[in-house]
Amino acid sequence: MVTIQRIPRLSAELFNIPIDVNRYLIYAPLRKAAFIANGPLVNLLADLQEGKPPESTEANSASIEFLRCLEILDAGPEKPPITVFEGPPCPTAVTLFLTTACNLRCTYCYASAGETTPRTMTEEVAKQGIDYVSANAVKKSIPAFELSFHGGGEPSVNWKTLTRAMDYAKERARQLDITVQASSATNGMLNDRQIDWTIANLEGGVSLSFDGLPKIQDKYRPTALGKGSSGHVLHTIRRFDEANFKYGIRITVTADQIPFLPDSIEFVCRNAQPQQIQVEPSYQMGRWQDAPSAETEGFIAAFREAQERARSLEKEIFFSAARVGTLTNHFCGVTRNTFALSPNGNVSACFEVFSEDNPWASAFFYGKPAADGSDYVFDLDTLNNLRRQAVQYKPYCAGCFAKWHCAGDCYHKALTVSGNEAFNGTSRCHITRELTKDQILERITAAGGIFWHEPPEPGSQDHPSDGKEIYS
User: Fold this and answer.
1) Positions of the region Disordered (predicted)?
2) CA 265, 271, 272 angle in degrees (round to 5)?
3) Which of 108-112, 194-198, 418-422, 456-460 has the weakest average pLDDT?
4) Which of 8, 23, 170, 248 satisfies CB 3.0 to 4.6 Å to 73 for a cystine?
5) What is the 3-state secondary structure (H, E, C) of 10-71?
6) What is the sign of the dihedral through the CA atoms of 462, 464, 469 and 472?
7) 3-class DSSP state for residue 391?
C-alpha cells in the first residue's frame, strides 16, 4: 500500500464528458489539459471534488501525480479569461453598413436583401465615423485604426461611398501619422476594376460568401435576375489567388444542402486558396425564417466528413463557436463595444442588426451622432445590457465545457430563438459541444494519444485593449 499524506486539492475547473462505455474525456479548459479516463479515475476525481481522502493504493498515487503534472491538483489559482467594459466606449474601429441593396437574391438571406427600398450610406456619415475612431486611436496612443465594410446588402453596390471612404481614411491616417487597416465582406460579384481596387486597398482582406459546388452556389445564391453566380464569383476568387490576396470563404449550409457539404468543401479546397474556410448552418431568419433547421446531427456528421476532406488537401474548416484554441468570455464584439454605423449613421453593436427597423434594433442600437456632428451620443443602459451578455453572466452556460471557447454564442441568434427570456441554449449548443469535443480529442491524439497539456499561447486569451481584466 502507498500512503497518501494529505487530501490533494482540486485546482482546476474540471469537466467530465462521456465518450463511450467506461471512457470519459476529462477536460480542464483553463489549464489547457485533457485526457481520457476510465471509471476508477473518474471516481477518484469525484472523491477529490467532494474533499474525500483517496484510498491509499499505488494506482491512486500514480493518478494523483499525473493530475498534479497537469495542474489539475495542487496548482495555483486559475485565471478565467474575463474582461469587462465600463463607461462610454472609445472605439478605434468602425464598420460601415454601406447599403441594404444587393446584386444577389440568396434564398436564405438573413437580411432579406432586395425586398425593401434600398438604404445607402452617404460619404458624410462614413467620414464622421472615420473621424471619430481615428481621433480615438490618437487619444489612446494606438498606431492604427480599423475600417470595415459590411451591411445588410453587398457593400460594393455603394461603390462611390466605399471608395471615397477608403480614400478619406487614408488621408486621415496620413494627417494623424497613423495607419488604417481596411477589410470588407463581399459576395464576390465584383468586376475586374473593383477586384483591382480591392487587392490594392483592402490590406485586411475580405470575407467572401461562396457555397462551394457551382450547382449549389447557383441554386442558393442566384443573381437579382435569377441567373447563376458561380462563374462570376469563381473569377473573383481566381483573381484574388493570382495576386496572393488575403481572403476567407464563408459557406452557408441549408438543411437540404447538408449532404453536399463534403463535396462543396473539396471543391473549394481544390479550386481556391483562402486563408480560412468558415462553415455555418443557415439562420432561420429573413427569407429563411420558415425553412427547416440545418442545426442538426446531420450537419455535425457532414462537417466531420468535410473536415477530413479538407485535411486530406492540407486545409482546415471551422465553425464559429467551436474554437478550443481561444479562451475568452466574449463570442463577438456585441459584448465589447462594436462600433458599426447604419446607413443613417446610428450605432449598432451587431453586424446582423444593420437597420433601425430590425425586430431587435432596440437591443443592439446604442448610439447616434451628436447634434453638431462632432461626436456620438451613447445610451449606456442599452450598451451595458449588451456587455452583460458575456458568458460569465449566463447561468445556463456555467456547466458547459465549451463556455470559455464559445463564450455564450451569438446573442442575436439567441434572441431570435427565445426572445427576451433568459438564455436557455439553442440547437447550436449541441453543434458547438460536439465540434469542440472533436478538437480536444484531436489535441490529445496529436500529443501522443494519452493526454494533452500546454500553456496558453500568446494571444490565445482574449484581452481587448480597452477592457478591464477580472479574475474571479
Assistant:
1) 452-472
2) 85
3) 456-460
4) 8
5) ECCCCEEEEEECCEEEEEEHHHCEEEEECHHHHHHHHHHHCCCCCCCCHHHHHHHHHHHHCC
6) negative
7) helix
Q: What is the rounded distance in angstroms from the CA atom of residue 362 to the CA atom of residue 356?
A: 8
* Residue 151 and residue 96 in contact, taking contact as beta carbons nearer than 8 Å: yes
Q: Which residues lie below 8 Å from residue 406, measured CB to CB, with a gap of 6+? A: 321, 322, 323, 331, 391, 397, 400, 429, 432, 436
Cα separation, 426 vs 284, whole angstroms: 12
Higher pLDDT pick, 136 / 283: 136
The answer to whether the beta carbons of residues 252 and 185 sit under 8 Å apart is no
**pLDDT at 462 (0 to 100):** 54
Q: DSSP labels for 261-305? A: HHHHHHHHHHH---SEEEEEEPPSSGGGTTSPP--SHHHHHHHHH
Mean pLDDT of all residues in 164-170:
99
When pLDDT is cut at 50, 70 and 90, the band that residue 463 belongs to is very low
Question: Residue 223 has what DSSP assignment?
Answer: B
Work out the burial of residue 194: count CB atoms within 10 Å of its CB; fewer than 13 is exposed, 13-18 middle, 19 or more buried. Answer: middle
- Residue environment code for 339-366, b if the CB has 16+ CB neighbours within 10 A, otherwise e: bbbbbebbbbbbbbbbbeebebbebbbb
Instruction: State the helix-helix crossing angle for 192-201 and 230-242, rounded to 10 degrees.
Output: 40
258-313 residue pLDDT tens = 999 999 999 999 999 999 999 999 987 878 778 899 999 999 999 999 999 999 99
pTM of the model: 0.93
Quick check: 457 pLDDT over 80? no
| Residue 112, amino acid | S
How far is 29 from 14, CA to CA, in rounded Å? 8
Number of residues that this document lists for the chain? 472
Cell numbers standing for residue 36 = 481520457
Report the C-alpha gap between 25 and 30 in whole angstroms.
Answer: 15
Cα–Cα dist 170/201, whole Å: 10
pLDDT band (50, 70, 90) for residue 67: very high
Q: Among 466, 461, 339, which residue's Cα sits nearest to residue 82? A: 461
Collapse the DSSP code of 208 into the 3-class scheme (helix H, G, I; strand E, B; otherwise coil) and give the result.
strand
**Residue 179 burial by Cβ neighbours in a 10 Å radius (0-12, 13-18, 19+):** middle
Q: Return d(Cα 256, Cα 86) in angstroms, integer.
A: 44
> What is the pairing mode between strands 144-150 and 93-97?
parallel
Q: How far apart are CA 280 and CA 432, in angstroms?
A: 11
Four-point Cα dihedral 417, 420, 421, 424, nearest 10: 40
Residue 163 in grid coordinates: 471608395
